[in-house]
Amino acid sequence: MATILNDISRTFSEYLLLPRLTRKEQRADKVDLSAPLSGFGEKAGFTINVPVVSACMQAVSGARLSIALARQGGLSFIFCSQPIESQVEMVRQVKAHKAGFVQSDSNATADMTLEQVIELMESTGHSTVPVTHDGTATGKLEGIITDKDFWIHEDDLTRTVRDHMTPIADVIHGLDGISLREANELLHRHKKDCLPVVDDKGHLTALVFKKDYEDHRRHPMELLDESKRLCVGAAINTHDYKERVPALIAAGADALCFDSSDGFTEYQMEGIKWIRENFGTDIVIGGGNIVSAEGFDYLVEEGGLDFIKVGIGGGSICITREQKGIGRGQASALLEVAERRDEYYRETGRYIPICSDGGLGNDTQIVIALAMGADFVMMGRYFAMTEESPTPKTSINGQMYKPYWGEGTLRAQNWQRYSDGMSTRKMVFEEGVDAYVPMVGPLAEVLETTLFKLRSTMVNIGADSLAEFRERAILTLVSEQSVVEGGTSSVFQFNSKSEADDGNWGRNS
Ligand code: MZP
Q1: Which pTM value belongs to this model?
Q2: Cβ(210)–Cβ(183) under 8 Å?
């Protein structure tokens, strides 16, 4: 018969941390949040500056979000559920990013109608739209149209952009090679909000915005490679890695990560071995997902992974547990794998960072995951809710939302149909759902709050680094009644906070 574990599948909200001695010299802003992405003991590891990475998902990790997260010290894994060429292009965009110079993601042609441009402005949230000969971000620049160039209720919206735009002859612009300081001087001198930059053939290469001026100052936590370019990760799968991996490495991806709901497979092992044989140990490879020590031993010992993701079925859009009956409470999975990771380190001197992936519903759960032994966390919903996620914002009943869907949905898997012209591997059932999440604002602001809470808890535990935090953490299981006790009781709150800033990032849990 089957083996029945004595352990109950537990989750983060069932635990609380006990405070330990806080020393007088400790300060939240001095706490070190850096985390390893690849092991130490064998080679100098790859380190991220804050312990968060974004999920390998279409609705999460596009180029814009990857740039925003790397500027805050974290890392994105650009999704692989897309053709190799478009994933490579996203990696290139992040590597080519120059602070203050952004590639335009709302572009029009002169023949478009005002109606179409308004639709574009609404879906992207941008009020300045470059007009290029082919409507791309790198086409020949013909002019600029902004929401000040027409009146929605007065002008004929069937007229073309050409009739309303500022033509290139009148557009103040910079030439490729211009420094950020010079670009800002031009904006200032000409009282402009946006400066297009073009190459010697008049093709658009970047935009510089006045509103980003403050943001241009270097971010102290920025995650940069040796050439001072932003770092970016890329997701891979077990089907086309022989073509995808070389292309991603050539484009400059700093780390790779297998994206699979169940990584305890011979397919993943073959993939890891192939990458190691062909690219050596310099490239960081993450794998998973697993939920047991057995899965850890298989992928780490035999495969030689750098980091491993833990979690099956806990994701906010995931229905794997309902559909297939596999998975494990995220806290139980993490505790077992972390224990094995520590044991393995003592046995071999090889440290394998672990990533708690999915199901983090609020800031407290991030804190608990890191205290329990995760080196860093991977999140989807958290980032899907930010301004920089790749999906259009949508107004529903007066509140702004963004679409968010799982990689196990038909919607996500449909890309194959278009990429190779063949039918996708037949999807008999879905393991994810297609949903909406409330918008919470710019990534930098949301993450700053989350990380401040983490720093503050680490001070309560007397920890100056995440490794010390794990060492010193003492956790207790909570009863249902103590959860009630932990909330407010018998008081009226007249100014209750909005859903989006309640620390649950918009979800009542
Ligand atoms: P969350 O942060 O939204 O709770 O969870 C994100 C994680 O859910 C991803 O990193 C991935 O491991 C997992 N995921 C993505 N798609 C699905 C699905 O369609 C899924 N079932 O479970």
Answers
A1: 0.83
A2: no
CA distances 391 to 125, 351, 386, Å, are 11, 37, 10
Nearest-Å Rg of the Cα atoms of the chain is 24
pLDDT tens by residue, 317-372:
999 999 999 999 999 999 999 999 999 999 999 999 999 999 999 999 999 999 99
Backbone angles phi, psi at 71, to 5 degrees: -70, -20
As a whole number of Å, the end-to-end CA separation of the chain is 37
Q: What is the mean pLDDT of residues 1-29?
A: 95
Strand 376-379 vs strand 394-396: parallel, antiparallel, or unpaired? unpaired
Q: Which mutation among 53, 56, 75, 261 tests ligand 1's pocket best, with the greatest number of atoms within 8 A of CB?
A: 261
Beta strands in 363-489 (DSSP E): 376-379, 394-396, 399-405, 434-438, 475-477
Instruction: Tell me which residues are annotated as active site.
Output: 318, 417
430-462 pLDDT per residue, tens: 999 999 999 999 999 999 999 999 999 999 999
Q: For residue 486, what pLDDT band results from cuts at 50, 70 and 90?
A: confident
Phi and psi torsions of 360, nearest 5°:
-85, 115
Question: Using a 6 Å CB cutoff, which residues line ligand 1?
Answer: 55, 57, 261, 289, 315-318, 320, 357-360, 378-382, 406-409, 431-432
Q: In degrees rounded to 5, what are phi and psi of residue 204?
A: -65, 135
Q: Specify the ligand 1 atom closest to the Cα of 408.
A: 19
Q: Please state, in angstroms and rounded to a whole number, the distance separating the CA atoms of residues 443 and 219.
A: 14
| 3-state class (DSSP) for residue 40 | coil
CB atoms within 10 A of CB 437: 25
Q: Examine the pLDDT at 504 and tell me if it is beyond 50.
A: yes
